[in-house]
Amino acid sequence: MTAPEDAAVGNISVMVVDDHPMWRDGVSRDLAEAGFQVAATADGVGAAGRRAAAVRPDVVLMDMQLPDGNGAQATAEVLRVSPHSRVLVLSASGERDDVLEAIKAGATGYLVKSASAAELIDAVKATAAGQAVFTPGLAGVVLGEFRRIAGAPPSDSGAERPALTERETEVLRLVAKGLSAKQIATRLSVSHRTVENHVQATLRKLQLGNRVELTRYAIEQGLE
């Protein structure tokens, strides 16, 4: 039963960026034992950019404290040279400013280092699938910032909004509330794959890149 999932994991390449060798090596080992391809490691902003350009990883695990800058700078550099990569921050800091800086730089998720190995592995899988993954409590920080940026009233620019089905709109509203695909599936009594199909269809219709942008869109439209 688990073979297809294991095979899928084996196709996910990961780069680990952290300036602490023991932590970097330990995380790399856990990921390799779980079946991921650990394509590269890096210990700073410059090295992250160079190695991302060379290996084009699917997922980058990014620390926020680096010797030649910070994780937000490294995230921006990685995405500049490898736009298809998805960045998941794994940091000791859960401070609001660090979270928001990372997301604004393009990270799609944020975990604190108190996460277990199993939680990290699940988060890497979800990130590779295009999901936004956050340590509990941090999603609310990001949603709150999006609400502040968007302002209270929904956009009334007059631009025609792409037509979503009733179910796509329902899923979008739950995504904006911070629910995971599994939670949405349970709430709507549908399969996890059905939820993912709705999310991907909505991303295509709205021409958005990931769930963070999808959440921002939902809030701007007053759907949350």
Our count of domains comes out at: 2
Strand percentage lies at: 5-15%
**What Rg do the Cα atoms give?**
17 Å
Total helices: the number is 11
Q: What's the CATH topology name of the largest domain?
A: Rossmann fold
CATH architecture of the largest domain: 3-Layer(aba) Sandwich
Count the strands?
Answer: 7
The end-to-end span amounts to 36 Å
> Which structural class fits the helix and strand makeup?
alpha/beta
Poorly predicted parts: 1-7, 152-158
Major beta sheet summary: 5 strands, parallel
What value does the average pLDDT take? 82
- Strand arrangement within the widest β-sheet reads 2-1-3-6-7
Helix percentage: 40-55%
Shape type = globular
CATH superfamily of the largest domain: Response regulator
CATH class term of the largest domain:
Alpha Beta
Order of helices and strands: HEHEHEEEHEHEHHHHHH
Could you describe the 3D structure shown?
With 224 residues, the protein is α/β, with parallel strands linked by helices. It folds into 2 domains: 3-141, Response regulator (Rossmann fold, 3-Layer(aba) Sandwich); 152-220, Winged helix-like DNA-binding domain superfamily/Winged helix DNA-binding domain (Arc Repressor Mutant, subunit A). 54% of the residues lie in helices and 13% in strands. The protein has 11 helices and 7 strands. The chain has helices at residues 3-10, 21-33, 45-55, 71-81, 96-105, 117-128, 138-150, 166-176, 181-188, 192-206, 211-220, and strands spanning 13-17, 37-42, 59-62, 65-66, 69-70, 86-91, 109-112. The protein has a 5-stranded parallel β-sheet, with helices on both faces. Helix 3 runs parallel beside helix 4 and helix 8 crosses helix 10. Residues 1-7 and 152-158 have low confidence and may be disordered.
